Amino acid sequence: MSETKILASYVTASRLEDIPDDVRHEARRAIVNYVGCAVGGSPHPAVDIAIRALGPYSGTPAASILGRAERLDPLHASLMNGISSHVYDYDDTTPKNYSHPTSPVGSALFSYASANPVRGRDFMLAFILGFEAESRVANAVYPAHYDVGWHITGTSGVFGAAAAVGRLLGLSVQEMVWAIGLAATQAAGLREMFGSMAKAFHPGRSAQNGYVAALLAKEGFTAGEHGIEGPRGFAAVQAATYDLSKITTRLGVDFDLRENTYKPFPCGIVNHPTIDGCIHLHDEHRPPPDTIRAVRLRVAPLVMDLCNQQNITRGLQGKFSVYHGAANELDRGKAGIQEYTDEAVNDPHIKRVRESASFFGYPAIPEDQARIEVDLHDGRTLSKFVEQSLGNLARPLSDRQLDDKFRDQAVLALPAADVESLIRLCWRIDELDEVNELVTAAVPAAARVIPASRRA
Amino acid sequence: MSETKILASYVTASRLEDIPDDVRHEARRAIVNYVGCAVGGSPHPAVDIAIRALGPYSGTPAASILGRAERLDPLHASLMNGISSHVYDYDDTTPKNYSHPTSPVGSALFSYASANPVRGRDFMLAFILGFEAESRVANAVYPAHYDVGWHITGTSGVFGAAAAVGRLLGLSVQEMVWAIGLAATQAAGLREMFGSMAKAFHPGRSAQNGYVAALLAKEGFTAGEHGIEGPRGFAAVQAATYDLSKITTRLGVDFDLRENTYKPFPCGIVNHPTIDGCIHLHDEHRPPPDTIRAVRLRVAPLVMDLCNQQNITRGLQGKFSVYHGAANELDRGKAGIQEYTDEAVNDPHIKRVRESASFFGYPAIPEDQARIEVDLHDGRTLSKFVEQSLGNLARPLSDRQLDDKFRDQAVLALPAADVESLIRLCWRIDELDEVNELVTAAVPAAARVIPASRRA
């Protein structure tokens, strides 16, 4: 059987009872992290602009956007959820393929569940299956696919969204094969967009496109039967080398959710060891910016590839500047959303330290390590070696730290008391009779709509 | 200046006065051919299904779909126009890059012009600029991009739609650069989908995605500044080799519209020489199917790559089966839309002849030539060499033949008298005060909506 068909069969047939408890708990953690990011990112100008540009084209406003008062049709709401949840580069990461997996799947599912009655346990199953589908497709083409310049979050995410929504729509195996084909043929997103709003457009559009793929397939819109493995399919066209066995091996036994990580800092994950180390140096020495003569960073080569932007003026660029990460942390000792604004990037103190920084990529340094040396004008050198960066698989954020991260973000859009009840709802999502209860709690009080099915 | 910026500057600044008369006439021919295809394809089940699946998500139904009674928001109408105009594989082709250029641009523009007042001359200028933009982007990456498996109609088409709609929206150069970036990062469509409805989804989605790109850019949604030429941009990621000078060289002087061709047969263009030759053999000898022992085709190697499907059951597959093309023409002597239905593909006479056919690709044979030999049971061999296939640049369809092609298709959706007036409107599109007059004439009478601006 083809990989596409094996995956389609698995996604259509799997039951929640087949999912181990630890995987379900990791799904809850991913959802907590996701909802915090989506609500926290929802006031971002990129979301304002997208709603202003595309809202006039929305259909019946049947779905809420997490964190926002506006309602749109579920396809457009998927797009907006995807933009908001990724725009601060604060969402989750699977280090084995560098995708940010929850945004595409969660954005489509929460939009679907806002417009349709969905039980919590069905939502959780669809989420887990969508996550596994996209992550396995990503594994099959990583690293060649990523290295050439694809933003794998978008290109693999569309498969996850199609699988997840397709599962809730009750697609047959044949329909799921078509949905996967329609996902494959919409797989897009270029790394050239990093540092602009278009980066966050990728998971949003992949959520929306996957949702569209599932809707079309449900009505019988046909696609190629071999969207993933065919000679002109996703893998062959979008990766110089690939391994399709990664899609099917131990499917339903091994779960990539177990290898998901949650960022402590809202920026490109390869910057995290540097930031972690600079926060340590700040807390230990608190060097005033004008005492710093030079900063030297020894990091993994991928940092050079992704985050080599020194001369920057916009907050979004700061997320992909290891120089900014180092300078900011040495000065402020903190890396939250406020440290990646235009204001922070243009802060003259930070700018001066940023311009004093240099870095070198060493193939021997793994991506979760960094060595930092700071030369002071008084002749001293401060140094720090980070062996495991906070948030990676060996030092995961605790459930409690995820709550803190949620609060820090969500208060940008919701009152603190509402944030607490929303956090509680996220942790027990699989117990909810209707996931719309959670979606409703995630929008400003004045915008809460009681679904028709619940009205007296 | 970067290629993206040069293209953006050209598209925003060019004037209709700068476009030579012969190019304008070729634009009219492309539009006549397009509208006929869109109206003729509009009753196809792929369009029915897409409207059934996505219609419930449509916004305010401000736009007509060519040939259909339903109205949708302009973004969804773009998608439907794109599906209908390409679903019979009967639309235009630029042989230098094998894209079908009018469908993405025309589908977005007619939808825009249905929902917004657009003068005919502005429409024509936007069409020509969108066509040139997409065709030049396609030239830059062809053939490597196409050979690896991209459906270049979709991947380049999104640039054309973004440029054309962006021009009508009056984007600044910066906004057009972002629109091009947002197009680049949505460039998708796999040749693996050939033979399914998803193939026609490609130009539709590229029309819709390009339109979205222009709307977002207009409101200030940022994208990478180097969507085409950047190190992780469209060309570098989606083509093993490319030549960016093809985008900018003699821009505004040479026009790819002059190298556009119109298909006489609704199927993969590389089958056309074989079909042309078999029609000749049919007309000359009228061999009954049971007298045919074997059919041998000597064709260009690309035919082998694209059209090597012998064991087929669906009309859509027939379009990419050189065996079907040969068998059908030997039997029926005609290749219209009715020769690519499921019924035709399953006709036992045609099936038997199809199964007797073999073909060989010869690198020495150009793509517009074919040599056909038919062995009869009585020992005779009929043969025909096609040196220039009807419809290619050396033997273009005349304006009159385009009218005939239009009629043959459009009568599937509209009364014959309405078809005649629609043809006349297409030929004088650039003289219209409002292009919506044409769009209105292209839908069933009962569905015609008088725009608010025209109401008494």
In short:
With 456 residues, chain A is α+β, with helices and mostly antiparallel strands. Chain A has helices at 3-13, 21-41, 45-54, 74-86, 102-115, 120-141, 144-148, 152-168, 173-184, 198-218, 234-238, 245-248, 272-285, 301-306, 315-318, 322-332, 342-346, 348-355, 399-410, 416-427, 436-441; strands spanning 63-64, 71-72, 292-299, 357-361, 370-376, 381-386.
Q: What secondary-structure arrangement, pairings included, does this model have?
A:
The structure is a homodimer of 456-residue chains.
Chain A: H1 3-13, H2 21-41, H3 45-54, E1 63-64, E2 71-72, H4 74-86, H5 102-115, H6 120-141, H7 144-148, H8 152-168, H9 173-184, H10 198-218, H11 234-238, H12 245-248, H13 272-285, E3 292-299, H14 301-306, H15 315-318, H16 322-332, H17 342-346, H18 348-355, E4 357-361, E5 370-376, E6 381-386, H19 399-410, H20 416-427, H21 436-441
Parallel strand pairs in A: 3-4
Antiparallel strand pairs in A: 1-2, 3-5, 5-6
Helix pairs in contact in A: 1-9, 2-4, 2-19, 3-4, 4-5, 4-10, 5-6, 5-8, 5-10, 6-8, 8-9, 8-10, 9-10, 13-16, 16-18, 19-20
Descriptive terms for the model:
two-stranded antiparallel sheet; 7% strand; 6 strands; homodimer; alpha+beta; globular; 456 residues; four-stranded mixed sheet
